[in-house]
Amino acid sequence: MGFIQIAVGAAWDSLKSTFGDQFLDFLVPPAGVGDTAVVFPAVTQGTNAGRGQNTRGSENIITNGSVIIVPEGYGLLTFQDGAVTAVVAEPGAFRWDSEDQNSKSVFSGGGLLSSTFTTSWERFKFGGRPGSQQLAFYVNLKQIPNNRFGTQSPIYWDDRYLNAQAGAITRGTYVLKVVDPILFVKNLVPASYISAGARPFDITEHTNPVSEQLFSEVVGSLAGAFSRYVNDADKEHRITRIQGDSVGFAKSLADEVEANYEWESGRGLQIESATLVAIEYDEDTTALLSDVRRADALSGGRSDTFLKQSVARGVQAAGESGGGGTGLAMMGMGMGAIGNLVPPTPTPGAAPAAATAGAPAPAPAQAPADPAVQLAQYKKMLDDGLINEDDFEALKKKVLGL
């Protein structure tokens, strides 16, 4: 009992032309269904250009001997008394027969469905003998885009990289996909959408109670998703990278939603991708991120560059102040790191510092340094990148008394 596949891969118009004249009923998706409609009834083409012999069939009812077309990217479920009697998740033309022993109840779709599918079929399948009439509904198995989320007040997460709690207001979109149509229809779709004469179930409609529920669950999972993203020890993510990583953020969000609400294992839904359109950090987080940027700038190669620039400015300042010991001594370990500089030249006429009791005698005054030696040392600093051309010219003029 179930379906017998009679054509695979044929064009839509060709299938309608071929089978519309041969079978009692010929069922297809309704015209004008939107891309975000997830569940909608099959409609009979009995009066379409004279095709089909049953012109008085009930809406979305499939009878023995009828053919139903399943387009690419869609699945089909049939029901009797609210129970699932057959599932098709691969494209083609199928004839319904409740008596033929060669018919099948499940066309799995060649791996397109979730690993939960087999379990959910066994759980919800019809246990008795199917009647000749079934309710037939299509399920959209394509990606369903533009599902929006956003927060009005900041969400907070523990950020291991910042070593503090961070907060932000955020908004974005995510892409959904039905990976188990049985779980989705049985556990999430209201019964009114899988009954005779039902209207299409559009998951993005604001009036749809399921849409509001999913929105709330995603927003409630954002803080946990942010925390998963930035605290992933393997990836070492930073929150500032999250806007450009739709795949990584989608995985964090999907894992958090699954942990909280069992979207995939309990409802047959999966988040395929997610994009943050905007993140507005609170004042404290903004200050923390600013400090992190400064710390990043002072790490690695940039630290060496800043040290060299700092040393160069110190050398120039020492020269402009008269080359005394105080100016150069202020540079401390930085000067030791770049090599020995020219010994300070004593100020003419300056009296030696008074000796204190028990203190060693002051070192004898050193002779003034040779200008040629000073210039050679400054030139080496220029060649090593410790000072720039302007610094070198200023030091040269100072040494030469220009």
UniProtKB/TrEMBL annotation:
It comes from the Bacteria. Residues 350-370 have a biased composition (Low complexity). Residues 347-370 are annotated as: Disordered. This is SPFH domain-containing protein. It comes from Demequina lignilytica.
